[in-house]
Design goal:
Elements lengths: L6 H12 L14 H4 L2 H7 L9 H4 L2 E3 L1 H4 L8 H12 L5 H11 L3 E5 L6 H9 L3 E6 L3 E6 L10 H7 L5 H17 L3 H14 L4 H13 L3 H14 L4 H13 L3 H14 L4 H13 L3 H17 L5 H13 L3 H11 L7 H15 L6
Parallel strand pairs: 1-2
Antiparallel strand pairs: 2-4, 3-4
Helix pairs in contact: 1-10, 1-12, 1-14, 1-16, 10-11, 10-12, 11-12, 12-13, 12-14, 13-14, 14-15, 14-16, 15-16, 16-17, 17-18, 18-19, 19-20
Length: about 375
């Protein structure tokens, strides 16, 4: 029985649709408040971006950690942190989020930060009949309970007007970051239109070519993705998202050792970054660099545990990596730990159970 390497999907989503890095921009100049904070989104919710805002002006709000600093603070800092942690635990578990919503009865959701951080919840909300996406900008998504006026690409005209007097660099950044979010929700056509506009504003922008590489990757156009990523690296040789986009395209072309050279550079730059580790794990597995794969998966699992996220799928991958190096006992341990995860799919659970049987009967793990 061969288990599908879901790492390929995880890494592709992190880079092409979910955001390998929170902001795809070069950090030479400070950002305006409209790009550095969710101020525009908070205005849509009826509250300014300050801790003096009245909680009643926003209503019962679900939010991500990166939005917390811009929201009305509870009486005690510990209370806010407790709430943030509680909210974080359900970002990857729509069923748990539903249970929390039944208890809290949220009026709206403010999702800022990298879409990869809340991908399962984002996908769930996009399909849910009782919630509507009502706002998107370069920093945030807003969902409101139905009935609500749903966001359409026509709203991008208003967003562009907000930045009409900003610098050209900021206009490029706004388009790239907004396109990044639109791609995360499958709005590929308006995302591409924004990227074409950004390219016209700055044809040498590393961020533009990086996001174009990711856009093509999301369409499965790997030749175009590789070409765009090479331009991104040309204009920003040490820009991590460009290196990640190129590594992903090289992987798709079967050039695993070339991809490994890049992901090693990325891990050196950001040894604890989740999406970087996801990509490196995928590449190390394909390049049969199993020792590196094991080390990387251990870091991913430790990070997931620290964020109260499920680890079962990652433990199955780790068990396979141990199996590839002939380490039966560690593989058995990881399979057994994986089976304790209630979120495993039936296919994953079946694979883990058969993996245990194979180890105990001294058969190879495939």
């Amino acid at each position: 029985m061969k288990f599908p390497r879901l790492l390929a999907l995880a890494a592709a989503l992190s880079i092409a649709a979910g955001g390998a890095f929170v902001w795809l921009r070069r950090p030479e100049l400070p950002l305006s408040v409209e790009l550095a904070t969710p101020s525009l989104a908070l205005a849509q919710l009826g509250a300014p971006a300050s801790s003096s805002a009245s909680p009643s002006s926003i209503g019962r709000l679900f939010y991500t950690r990166s939005a917390a600093a811009f929201l009305p603070a509870p009486a005690e800092a510990a209370a806010r942190e407790k709430q943030v942690v509680e909210y974080e635990t359900v970002l990857h578990d729509p069923k748990a989020w539903r249970a929390l919503d039944r208890r809290e009865r949220f009026e709206a959701l403010l999702l800022t930060g990298s879409p990869a951080e809340f991908r399962p919840l984002l996908d769930h909300l996009r399909q849910a009949p009782d919630w509507k996406l009502t706002y998107v900008d370069a920093t945030s998504f807003i969902f409101r309970r139905t009935p609500a006026v749903e966001w359409t690409p026509a709203a991008l005209g208003t967003l562009k007007e907000c930045f009409a007097t900003h610098s050209r660099s900021e206009q490029v950044t706004m388009r790239v970051q907004t396109a990044h979010r639109l791609a995360a929700i499958g709005e590929y056509r308006p995302a591409k239109e924004l990227l074409d506009e950004a390219e016209a504003l700055d044809v040498r922008s590393t961020a533009v070519w990086t996001e174009l590489a990711s856009w093509h990757a999301a369409q499965g156009k790997w030749d175009e993705s590789l070409e765009a990523s090479e331009k991104a690296v040309k204009y920003g040789r040490n820009y991590p998202p460009a290196l990640a986009a190129k590594a992903n395209a090289l992987f798709a072309h079967g050039k695993f050792n070339d991809a490994l050279h890049l992901t090693r550079r990325l891990v050196e730059k950001a040894p604890e970054d989740g999406p970087t580790l996801y990509l490196h794990a995928k590449v190390t597995h394909a390049a049969r660099a199993y020792a590196e794969e094991i080390e990387t998966l251990q870091k991913i699992i430790a990070g997931a545990e620290a964020r109260h996220m499920p680890t079962g799928t990652w433990r199955i991958f780790l068990a396979q990596a141990y199996g590839a190096t002939g380490e039966a006992e560690p593989a058995l341990e990881q399979f057994e730990k994986a089976l304790k995860d209630p979120g495993l799919t039936e296919r994953e659970r079946s694979f883990a159970e058969k993996g245990i049987e194979r180890i105990r009967s001294r058969e190879p793990i495939l």
